[in-house]
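JOB MANIFEST
job_type = single_chain_structure
chain_count = 1
residues = 59
[input]
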Amino acid sequence: MLDLDKLGEDGLDVMRRLRAGYDGALILVTAQRRDLADCVLGLEMGADDYLVSPIACVS
């Protein structure tokens, strides 16, 4: 899981570098990048999911 807002650099750049050498699941989490365009971009760049926080767990 990558928190796009807490990396100290552009989280999408970090994800791009990880995706180049990592075959596992990458989930992007953000509280600030809520636009649909950001979500679509993240998914097109190789994210497996894009979550906007706060994230609630329901039992």
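[summary]
The CA atoms of residues 13 and 45 lie 10 Å apart.
The two ends are 22 Å apart (CA to CA).
exit_status = 0
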